[in-house]
Amino acid sequence: MYKIAVIPGDGTGPEVIREGLKVLKAVSEKVGFQYETQVFDWGGDRYLRTGEVLPEGAIDELKKFDAIYLGAIGHPDVKPGILEKGILLAIRFGLDQYINLRPVKLYPGVDTPLKDKGPEDIDYVVVRENTEGLYAGAGGVLKKGTPDEVAVQESINTRKGVERCIRYAFEYCRKRNKKKKLTLVGKTNVLTYAFDLWERTFYEVAQEYPDIQTDYAHVDATTMWMVKNPEWFDVIVTDNMFGDIITDLGAMTQGGMGIAAGGNINPQGVSMFEPIGGSAPKYTGKNIINPLAAIGALQMMLENLGEEKAAELVDKAIAFVTGTKLKSLSAGKMGYTTSEVGDMVAQFIADA
Ligand code: IPM
Ligand code: MN
Known about the structure:
Layout: E1 2-9, H1 13-31, E2 35-39, H2 44-50, H3 58-62, E3 67-72, H4 82-94, E4 99-105, E5 123-129, E6 133-142, E7 150-156, H5 159-176, E8 181-186, H6 194-206, E9 213-218, H7 219-228, E10 235-238, H8 240-253, E11 261-265, E12 271-275, H9 292-305, H10 308-324, H11 338-351
Parallel strand pairs: 1-2, 1-3, 3-12, 5-10, 8-9, 8-10
Antiparallel strand pairs: 4-5, 4-11, 6-7, 11-12
Helix pairs in contact: 1-9, 1-10, 1-11, 5-6, 7-8, 9-10, 10-11
The structure holds 3-isopropylmalic acid and manganese (II) ion (MN).
């Protein structure tokens, strides 16, 4: 019996999570596993009502679950940073989810802006460090609001944090068993302290993985290759900030935010799965947002729980819907409503 914490969150979060849970029900009945869910109302509306981002003891409460399923965090009436730091980053850091796993995969039938590229070319995974770097919150401000204001925001890179991330990436690459190539993405030509640590650690750990081919690319060049030659990549490992940026680019090449999913993973603890697109306030409540990103996040959650068969089935169902049903992945242009897309995925699973 899996215990799953559900945080629908803000904007379109609840709509897409509803479809994800529909698919979870269908696939659990099909392959035969049991689960229970507990819903938490954390997000912008609750914050505006109570002034509290996360209630006390929230992180400890989450430790009791096998996985967390998150919709979206971000509210148009709340100043940027409050909910992101107070909820999303607080959970990532609080549960030490040190990996942000983001597949960039073009499903059949999906339009990519990359000319002449197809599903066989766009299929790689970004392993983003998820607890350090510029996100660690180190730094400060002096003389704020004066002409002499000084703002310092430091990138924190620890040997432990870098090594566990790199090690995870090597293991993941081996398990994935495709091109067996791991690319470190950094900026060794300028960030000569931080990425020197990354580079040394990368090649040291690589000694233990002779079956994995290693490669290095600067982050700026990486954005070129992601557009021009995405087929070169298999698994990428990089720091928090670079990983944040390049995975938005990656998401666009796989058809956009309607399909991009990610997992915040603590291999020894509780992991959290989310569509990476955000709360999309302008589409909220219209039943037109694409739920496939949330369904993709569910697929990753199932894989992480060890329900391989269920995960495979959900993956096939997504491919069926993109390949034979949807006109577009964009909100309002799919040719179906949010709930109809969820229904089609669930039906495919039931019929499988
Ligand atoms: C993401 C988001 C978050 C991040 C924000 C909302 C804090 O952009 O999940 O990529 O920067 O990590
Ligand atoms: Mn981001």
